[in-house]
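#onboarding

Welcome to the new folks! Below is a worked example of what a typical request in this channel looks like: someone posts a single protein sequence, and someone else replies with the predicted structure as tokens. Don't worry about understanding the tokens yet, we'll cover that in week two.

Example request:
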Amino acid sequence: MSQFPTEPKNIKAKINRYERELRKEYEAHKYIDDSSGKRYLLGPFYLLLGDVDGALKSFAWFEQMFPDDMGEPFHTLCWALALYRAGDMTGASQKLLQTMLSNLYLLPQLLGQKQPRLDIWHGSNIEEKDYLEYIQPEIWTLWDTDALEWAQVKYESAEFERIRTRYIEIHSQLKTEPVGTRRSQLVTEAFALRKISDKL
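Example response:
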């Protein structure tokens, strides 16, 4: 991931350029092939400007344009923060849970908790602990004390702990489970847990 701009004028310039490029691509092709990942940066950039409404509009656009996109963990984390700052506590909790399951090391890092690499199957590189090395420091500094306290309460809640424990159990089994019916059942259950956030 490229370095984030820090000056407000540079952040605004990046937002304008990325939005313009993505809009032109859609107008030309009726779809967006965003291999560079600009779509994941817009919401966080708005948050860096302190523009919660702009961030929410960007996340809503992302949801509309990329409904099947699992997203990047840092992007979902910022989405949770934007909803929290907007006072949408249900939506914020949903996105925080999605963040937790998209990368099991991300929330512990945010909260200053040690989390050794788990002895589990990691389905992709964004689920690995090494993923944290690529997150820009500005993502962490977006979180003030109140937001961190809220995130910690949610992370340590019985519901989050129950879901997290089962998710880890499943991925521990997936590390050695061969291709077949049982593995398919475990994968289906893991995806179902990631969808539970819609019902929180």
